C-alpha cells in the first residue's frame, strides 16, 4: 500500500475529487494548508499598504492506494490539478505498512 499526498490549488480540489471518484477511488482526506516553494509567496495591497504574503494557501489531499491503483491515482491528480503555472503543487508517495478499519478490525488492503 502507498500513501499519496498531493498539494494542489484550492480551485482544483473539486476537479481532482470528481476525477478520482470516476476512476473508482473513493476515500480521501483533505486539509487546508499554507506553504511556499519556488513560488515564494506574493504581495497584496490592502487599504493602500503593500503586504508580503509568504505562505500561499493550498489544499493537501491524502489518498491511500493499493499498488495496482497507485499509478492511476498519480496520473489522475497530475491531469486534473495541472495548470502549467508555478505553484501547481507537488505529489509525495510514501510506503504504508498497514491500515486498519476501526469498525470491523479489517487490516491491509481490505481496510481501504
Describe what you observe in this structure.
The protein is α+β, with helices and mostly antiparallel strands. It has a single domain, classed as Alpha-Beta Plaits (2-Layer Sandwich), CATH 3.30.70. The protein is built from two helices and six strands; from the N terminus they run βαββββαβ. It has helices spanning 13-22, 67-81, and strands at residues 2-8, 29-35, 42-46, 49-53, 56-65, 90-95. It has a four-stranded antiparallel beta sheet with strand order 2-5-1-6, with helices on one face. Strand 3 (42-46) and strand 4 (49-53) form a beta hairpin. The longest helix is centred in the middle third of the chain and has 15 residues, at 67-81. The N and C termini lie close together (9 Å).
How many domains would you count in the coordinates? 1
Low-confidence stretches: none
Overall pLDDT confidence: 91
The CATH topology is given as Alpha-Beta Plaits
Globally, the shape reads: elongated
Distance from N terminus to C terminus (CA atoms, Å) equals 9 Å
Q: Biggest sheet: strands side by side, in what order?
A: 2-5-1-6
Taking the sheet with the most strands, its summary is: 4 strands, antiparallel
Helix share bin: 10-25%
Amino acid at each position: 500500500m502507498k500513501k499519496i499526498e498531493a498539494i494542489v490549488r484550492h480551485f482544483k480540489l473539486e476537479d481532482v475529487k470528481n476525477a478520482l471518484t470516476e476512476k473508482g477511488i473513493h476515500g480521501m482526506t483533505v486539509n487546508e494548508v499554507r506553504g511556499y516553494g519556488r513560488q515564494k509567496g506574493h504581495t497584496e495591497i490592502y487599504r493602500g499598504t503593500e503586504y508580503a504574503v509568504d505562505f500561499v494557501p493550498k489544499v493537501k489531499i491524502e489518498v491511500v492506494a493499493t499498488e495496482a491503483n497507485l499509478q492511476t491515482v498519480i496520473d489522475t491528480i497530475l491531469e486534473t490539478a495541472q495548470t502549467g503555472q508555478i505553484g501547481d503543487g507537488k505529489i509525495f508517495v510514501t510506503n504504508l505498512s498497514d491500515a486498519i478499519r476501526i469498525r470491523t478490525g479489517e487490516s491491509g488492503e481490505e481496510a481501504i
